[in-house]
Amino acid sequence: MNETLNDQIARLNDNEDADGLIRLIRQLPPDQLQQHQTALSEASESVFYIWLTDLQLGKIRQEDQDAVTAMLAELIQALEIVQPETPHHLMRALLYEQIADQQTAPVEKLAYIQRGIDEYTAGLQQRTNPEMQAKLAEALLNKMQHTQDYNEKDLTGILHLFQTAFISYSELILIYFLHGTFRLLNFPFDENNSWHHRFFAQLETDLKAFAAVDPYIYLEYVNILRRLLENELYQIPADYKTVLHKKIIALLEPLKDYETESEQRLNHLGQAFEKVAEGIEDHTTRLNFYRAALSFFTQGQQINPAAWTFPVYATNVLMEMARIDTPDKVIPLFEQGKALFALTYTYGPDFTLMHYWGKFLIEYARQAYNFQAPDILKEAEEKLLSAKQLGNGFYDQPYRGLAKVALKLGNKQQCLDILAECKKVFTTDYHEYEHSFVLADEDFKEIWPDLNH
Question: What global pTM score does this model have?
Answer without folding.
Answer: 0.85
